[in-house]
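Revision sheet: structure tokens.
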Amino acid sequence: MGAGSIGSVVGGMLHRGGHDVRLVGKGPHARAMAERGLRLTGIWGMFDLPDVKACESVGEALDGGFRPQWTLLSVKSYDTAAAMKDLAPALPGLHGVVSLQNGLGNLDAIEAAAPGMAVGGRVIFGATTLAPGAVEVTVSADDVLIGPGHESVHDVVAAFRSSGIPCRFEERILSYIWDKVLYNVCLNAPATILKTDYGKLWDDPDSRAVIERLVREFYLVAGARGVTPVSPGPSEYLARFESELLPPTRGHRSSMQEDIENGRPTEIEALNGAVARMAREHGMEAPLNESLAGMVRFLERH
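Predicted:
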């Protein structure tokens, strides 16, 4: 549900792997898939999937008696609550809803709408829609992580793996979700405001100092929320950021920049905005995250 670039890759690969899948999306891409099928290209291979089943609503997906066991949610974070309302007819019989999304707060929104069904996921591969009905997998930094939840969540992991999507079960999924959020907190808003790529942000001493402050603020909030990050402290994270996380994406521009340039809302409220909001909830301050979130809101409005 939310069959944009990431959702189409996941759904298309699972379909190719022999699973009964419905891709629910909106707009020209969803209509093209419904009419002509899906073409996947990139680092995981080239596949034409003319018989993929795509539609524009949950009701349409359920026509003919289809009853899913799992929903894979890949809508933007600001659409999670609305998507869960749309999903209501499919909830009876579901084992769970796996969030394959960016940002903080998605699991809370899923849990509020479907108690006991929220399952965490971390997606760290990249994909882009080349044209309606055509998606390219551009980069994969690590396995998709899923867990924990209903006992059959292991079947979901196995389905991903057997369909060609690198995936593994992860008991500490919250740590890894927060770890990915930290990466985006460090880079997305600064790169968008400064209209630059990730490598230049790190190479310049002034913008590097901004990243270092963002990391320190993030760790204070994570500690207050009882979350144990993957790296034990800011200095260890920054060392891993420089040696492991940044190099594969040095030349990348933030997808947030594309959102601004195309007049779309961004996910700032699930990233720097969420860090600032959680800090306030705990009587703390995260002034740099607050400032960057405000600047991105300005860009959204203007």
